[in-house]
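re the bet — no i am not wrong, look at it urself. input seq straight from the record:
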Amino acid sequence: MRFTSEQRLGDNILEREFTLGSTPGIPGFLWTPASASASAPVPLILLGHPPLGLGKMYPRLVGRARRAVADGFAAATIELPGRGDRPRLAAVDQARADMRRAFQAGEPVGDETVDALILPLVEQAVPEWQAAIDALLALPGIEGPVGYSGGVISIGIRLALVEPRVTAAVLFAGSFVPRAIQEDARRVTIPLHVLLQWDDEGNDRQAALDLFDAFGSEEKTLLASMGGHTGVPQSAGEDAARFLTRHLS
């Protein structure tokens, strides 16, 4: 991990931009309380996000990071495969175009298209998140446990299944989940808090509810709010923050 920039966001937040891995590497951001140190380390929250690129997502991510730091955590995120300045994934781009055409034509999105869109992201992104955890926990001032918060939900599910250092997760509900990931969900056992927008125009509500039902966790909460995909109310974010504080502090 190589830090490429550093700035203070107010008095208590240190933001550092980094690159993970060999050239060209994976871009990312780390936000930590200014008081974090080797003698006073803080737990870590990984901030997942949709595949829109870190540049576009930064304003929303930094808002979530500010809340995490205020609650006594470090927060970090990395660019998803095929987004931003990273090499494109041609098959994923083609699947995204196929899904867009299906939407415009009012046709159902087939399992093959969902698999082609999501599975390559999961297969590449999850090991990258694990490498990020390795590097972040090696820094002075950061320690476990680790939480995951955000999307893509399929990435969060696979990471929750295979990474023992992730001990709690907030997932943003989505319905385009490959069957292989649905089977992964049955084997997830960590505490989960799932946010669902009841009128999300881009997701099938029943499919999202069925996925929640499939999770194997003994402790799982579904918080449904009225409104579309981008209308998550502030109160829902506060509930999610309290969940992470309860399980990571």
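see?? The domain at 2-85+125-248 is CATH 3.40.50.1820 (Rossmann fold). told u. also The chain has a mean pLDDT of 94. so pay up
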